[in-house]
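seq:
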Amino acid sequence: MTRDEGDYCDVRTRLKKKLQEHENDIHDDTKTSVNHYIDHDEFEIALEGLCLDLMDSSKTTDRDIVECVDLGRILGLDKASVLNVDLWKLLISQKAGSRSKQNEHDDEK
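struct:
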């Protein structure tokens, strides 16, 4: 996928925002690494590290997972990943699990 400068700015902004939203929920070394990769325009690795930590956090919301999937598609992580070869499967299964929980909740109403 070819990305123009606008795509990079949007991804950078969204990654920084997500990192800031969860600064108290993820490991310090993850924050340092994600910031490092963002600063060096290595958005794929930054997103992977952030997503992996978010999936381990109890504070992660369905919206967080949806945003990780969206950013992952923009960055091509649905085709190849660097840190964890199963990242995409993990994200998609967590997103599907979130939908299942929401459907169960809706059925109870």
